[in-house]
Amino acid sequence: MIWEFLGSMLIGLALGWTASHRLPDRLPAPRVVLATGPAGALFGAYLTHAALGPGHLTAALVGAVSVGAVSLSLLVRPVGRRLGRAGFSSPSRV
Question: Apex CA 77: angle with CA 20 and CA 19, to 5°?
Fold first, then answer.
């Protein structure tokens, strides 16, 4: 269980570091990214451990990678769009 914890923390930090260096303009502050990666990876390892039980280290680490990557993907902002209200445009005066 301790190896699952340490492995998922390292995987989450690696995912967060990689994402913050590859997409710095599309992600929020690096502090948020470096906190979200390990949190998602820990949750993924916990979820996999709860579903499969103890003794499945590889599967728990695969679950950590999967959920960590998904949680980081939720932070990515679209390119070229402003952070305004979606669907509303400025009123035109006629």
Answer: 15
Residue 27, helix vs strand vs coil: coil
| DSSP codes of every residue in 32-50 | HHHHHHHHHHHHHHHHHHH
CA atoms within 13 A on the CB side of 3: 8
pTM: 0.79
Measure the CA–CA gap between 58 and 86, rounded to whole angstroms.
Answer: 42
The answer on pLDDT for 82 being more than 70 is no
Contact of 61 with 7, CB cutoff 8 Å: yes
Taken in order 18, 23, 24, 27, is the CA torsion positive or negative?
negative
Q: How many residues does the chain have?
A: 94
- For residues 5 and 60, what is the distance between their CA atoms, to the nearest angstrom? 9
